Amino acid sequence: MILNGTNTFNNFGEALYGVFNNNGEIVAIGGLNPDPFSNKPFIGRVRRFYVNKEYRRKGIGSLLLKSIINEAKKYYKILVLRTNTKQGDNFYTSYGFLKVDIYPSSTHYMELKK
Q1: β pairing state of 98-99 and 108-111
Q2: Is the residue at 45 inside a domain?
Q3: What is the phi/psi pair of residue 81, to 5°?
Q4: Confidence band (pLDDT; 50, 70, 90) for 8?
């Protein structure tokens, strides 16, 4: 991440995933960065995760999140995220994230096992 706030997802431990429909339009996106709210290098953060409403409940979000988790295992011990919706809470906890307020500016975390 560049210090001016621009997130380019091109540094060590970073990735940006997109899912496109048959017309080439992006329908889901999600990224991985070192957690900018922590000074611990072993904590990663799910960033900018979004699935277009028309494409929800079709497995796209699951595929995207699993890809991010698998990538995170290469670099981090802990993966955190922030969501403010019940739907998001239900989605992330169904994949093993715990809803606990112990990491700065995060609502959920997961211990990663390689």
Answers
A1: antiparallel
A2: yes
A3: -160, 170
A4: confident
pLDDT at 2 over 60: no
* Dist CA 41 CA 77 (whole Å): 9
Read off the pLDDT of residues 79-96 as tens digits, 9 standing for 90 and up.
Answer: 999 999 999 999 999 999
Per-residue tokens: 44: 């990663």
63 within a domain of the structure (yes/no): yes
Per-residue pLDDT of 96-113, as tens digits, reads 999 999 999 999 999 998
- Structural domains in the chain (count): 1
pLDDT at 11: 85
Whether 5 is in a domain gets the answer no
Tell me the CATH number at 54: 3.40.630.30
Q: What is the largest CA-CA distance in the chain?
A: 42
DSSP 19-74: EE-TTS-EEEEEEEEE-TT-S-TTEEEEEEEEE-GGGTTTTHHHHHHHHHHHHHTT
Distance linking the first and last C-alpha atoms of the chain: 25
